[in-house]
Amino acid sequence: EMMVGGEQLQITAEIAGLFAELRSCALYNHYGPSESHVVTSHLLPGNPEDWPSLPPLGRPISNATIYVLDRRLRPAPIGVPGEIYIGGDCLAHGYIGRPELTAERFIPDPFGRESASRLYKTGDLGRFLANGDIEFLGRNDFQVKLRGMRIELGEIESVLRRHEKVSEAVVILREGAQPGDKRLVAYLVAQAAVSTRELKAYLRETLPDYMVPAIYVALDQLPMTQSGKVNRMALPPPGDADLGGEGECEEPEGAVETVIAGIWEEVLGRKKVGAGDNFFEIGGHSLVATQVMSRVREALRVEVGLRKLFEEPTVRGFARAILAPEETRAGIEKAAEILLRLSRLSEDEAERMLEEKKRGRNGESR
């Protein structure tokens, strides 16, 4: 028999292949923080080909009690995430010389029959499965708040890792190109080519929209600390390496598409936006959309409602929509062409043009 613990067990192809040859060796996944002893155990099934990439923690062992509770210390229903609390004979007495931390982490047991019984607040997230096993979902140290909603990053990571093409995944909250514009960014190591659209569709089967990351970055491997944990501080900023596009980047056609693509690049902090890129699949959301609309109105001298961007979220579709009215098309195209000409001028050429314009005005006034 082999028993593992300490860090979350991940079944790689190499591990499964090794145990396929060691038919007589059973693999147990154990769970138990330093403040307790081992408190759960899970025996993986006999055929390594059936092993999940992230095995559950299992069920409580004798003399240990495990609860999954919400913020009000109420038991979470089966399948609903919560924080893992441990009770029973396995608990430590507390932290030496740290009474405040002991009181914070070792709380009175609201379900205990004895007044002195306590629960240890692990800081780990999990949920009970229908068969009684506990699934580990990460740490609540990585809980973030985005646009008023509390999000457990570990829950998103757990779902991402269950995708057949994803072997490792980490999700963080990053600030976008505009100050205060925060977005969820998923970093993953993929076993095969996978697109943003595919990942978002997969996540939406399980998670609400506000928990679906806006940007996905593929890495050869996740950066690690010397202790073997993921180094979240070393994760690179999203850029051209992310999975935002679907295939080759299609060049914008005409002045209007080019101006719109340029506005999206500035607002979303991307180096390149193609004509077929979907605004909401490359990092856009409703709050950033209002900035885009304001810039489009100012640049192209056109009145267009925010709803139009939701109806036509690609550069080409949005350009086609605002050019649809015949009576305003010529003016919009002229404004876009002027902007492009100005953007291509050097500083000296722009200053010379302004001087000529000033002299012309002064001549007219005389």
What does the model show?
- By secondary structure, this protein is α+β, with helices and mostly antiparallel strands.
- It is 31% helix and 21% strand.
- Strands 5, 6, 7, 8 and 9 form a 5-stranded antiparallel sheet that branches. It has a 4-stranded mixed sheet with strand order 1-2-3-4, with no helix packed on it. Strands 12-13-14 form a 3-stranded mixed sheet, with helices on one face.
- α5 crosses α6, α5 crosses α8 and α5 crosses α9.
Question: How would you concisely characterize the structure shown here?
Answer:
Helix content is 31%, strand content 21%. It contains 10 helices and 14 strands. Strands 5, 6, 7, 8 and 9 form a 5-stranded antiparallel beta sheet that branches. A 4-stranded mixed beta sheet has the order 1-2-3-4, with no helix packed on it.
Task: Please specify the SSE layout and strand pairing.
Elements: E1 2-4, H1 13-21, E2 27-31, E3 40-43, E4 59-60, E5 64-69, E6 82-88, H2 99-105, E7 106-108, E8 118-128, E9 134-139, E10 143-146, E11 149-152, H3 153-161, E12 166-175, E13 182-190, H4 196-204, E14 215-218, H5 254-268, H6 286-300, H7 307-311, H8 315-322, H9 326-343, H10 347-365
Parallel strand pairs: 1-2, 13-14
Antiparallel strand pairs: 2-3, 3-4, 5-6, 6-8, 7-8, 8-9, 10-11, 12-13
